[in-house]
Amino acid sequence: MEDRSDLSRLMPLLQAADRVVASTGSGISAESGVPTFRGKDGLWKTYRAEELATPMAFEHNPHLVWEWYDWRRQLMAAKEPNAGHRVLAEWAESFPSFSLITQNIDGLHAKAGSRNILELHGNIWKLRCTQEGTLTENYDVPLEEMPPLCSQCGSLLRPHVVWFGESLDMDILRQSTQLSSDCDIMFVVGTSAIVQPAASLPMAALEAGAKIVEVNPEPTPLTPHAHFSFRGKAGEILPQINDSLKQVRKIGLPR
Ligand code: BV8
Fold first, then answer.
1. CB within 8 Å of 149: residues ≥ 6 apart
2. CB–CB of 168/199 below 8 Å?
3. 150 alpha carbon to ligand 1 midpoint, in Å?
4. Which residue's CA is the closest to the ligand 1 atom numbered 58?
5. Domain check: are 146 and 228 in the same one?
6. Mind listing the pLDDT tens digit of every residue in the chain (255 residues)?
7. Which of 25, 86, 134, 168 has the fewest Cβ atoms nearer than 10 Å?
8. Residue from 60, 63, 85, 121 carrying the catalytic annotation
9. Is residue 190 situated within a structural domain?
10. Are residues 181 and 233 both part of a single domain?
């Protein structure tokens, strides 16, 4: 069995890659101090996200759901991107084609300089009118009114995020699936690879012949399928991969 954390095996593939996709989960923000969902200090230890991040919970008790999101916004507002986010922002210019897909709603990829991010599960800094569907960006921490109301029609605003049992934005999902099926290499960083349909994107890439590079301190259901598996933190592994790539490009190894 080849060593799936052998950087020297990854470099020629990265050198030759035209289309690179990165798909991230909450683990890439862990080193920024944003709690993951399932980790030991994960959000879901204190809160049952499946009970709070649902349309039913919001319908039943919008104030409680907004208290949870307001608390998460306050926690996220003070956090900065880490080296892992910054490498992915740099990679937008490092390959002929690079795309970033994220399950995260914390906005840290954008804060690190990434653009054209495919936010599968929305963005906690956007509020959506429950009647008009209009979106507003709001960075107030804490929120000035609870629960927040639409300034146009007075209706309840909701977080512009995808809750459990809600379908994703079809256009974002279609684009993400298309990019996953077309890429040469997909990096899967900091996700437990459980939540669907996000967890199906690396499998679509695999079926289309892409090489899968997983970066995670723990094994996941994706690990057995990955061509490369770096067992470590995104903020450490991604800079190592990036430094090696710059090194081989400087030496000018054949593409
Ligand atoms: C859908 C936004 C269908 C909100 C999120 C029963 C009822 C209803 C639905 C279902 C059901 N059973 C299954 C489903 C489908 C469901 C699902 O997948 N459930 C799971 C629990 C099995 N999916 C859905 O409901 C989706 N919608 O299916 O719709 C439909 C279709 C048509 C019409 C109507 C409906 C919607 C799912 C989106 C839910 N929203 N977030 C909010 O955040 O408040 S999910 C949320 O949890 C995140 O966005 C993310 O996707 C997920 C958590 O996953 P991860 O990001 O992977 O985080 P996790 O903590 O799990 O793992 C962190 C990883 O990082 C770990 O592996 C750890 O080792 C690693 N790590 C830690 N430190 C580091 C690190 N890695 C690198 N570096 C480090 N330093």
1. 155, 156, 157
2. no
3. 28
4. 26
5. no
6. 678 899 999 999 999 999 999 999 999 999 999 998 877 777 766 767 778 899 999 999 999 999 999 999 999 999 999 999 999 999 999 999 999 999 999 999 999 999 999 999 999 999 999 999 999 999 999 999 999 999 999 999 999 999 999 999 999 999 999 999 999 999 999 999 999 999 999 999 999 999 999 999 999 999 999 999 999 999 999 999 999 999 999 987 655
7. 134
8. 121
9. yes
10. yes
Q: Is 2 part of any domain?
A: no
* 248 CA to centre of ligand 1 in angstroms: 36
245 in the same domain as 152: no
Range of the domain at 24: 7-34+81-121+168-251
**Paired sense of beta strands 122-129 and 157-161, if any:** antiparallel
Same domain, 155 and 191: no
How many Å lie between the centroid of ligand 1 and the Cα of residue 196?
A: 7
Q: What's 144's domain CATH number?
A: 3.30.1600.10
Measuring from each residue's beta carbon to the nearest atom of ligand 1, which residues come in under 6 Å? 25-28, 30-31, 36-39, 42, 53, 103, 105, 121, 161-167, 190-192, 194-196, 198, 215-218, 220, 233-234
pLDDT attached to residue 252: 72
Residue 146 forms part of a structural domain: yes
Nearest CA residue ID for atom 30, ligand 1: 167
The alpha carbon of 202 and the centre of ligand 1 are apart by a number of angstroms equal to 14
Whether the model pTM is above 0.70: yes
Q: Is 150 exposed, middle or buried (0-12, 13-18, 19+ CB in 10 A)?
A: middle
Neighbour-count burial for 29-46, b at 16+ CB within 10 Å, e otherwise: bbbbebbbbebeebbbee
CATH for 208: 3.40.50.1220
Amino acid 51 reads E
Ligand 1 atom nearest the C-alpha of 26 is 56
Same-domain status, 148 and 134? yes
Three-state SS at 221: coil
Tell me whether residue 227 is one of the annotated catalytic residues.
Answer: no
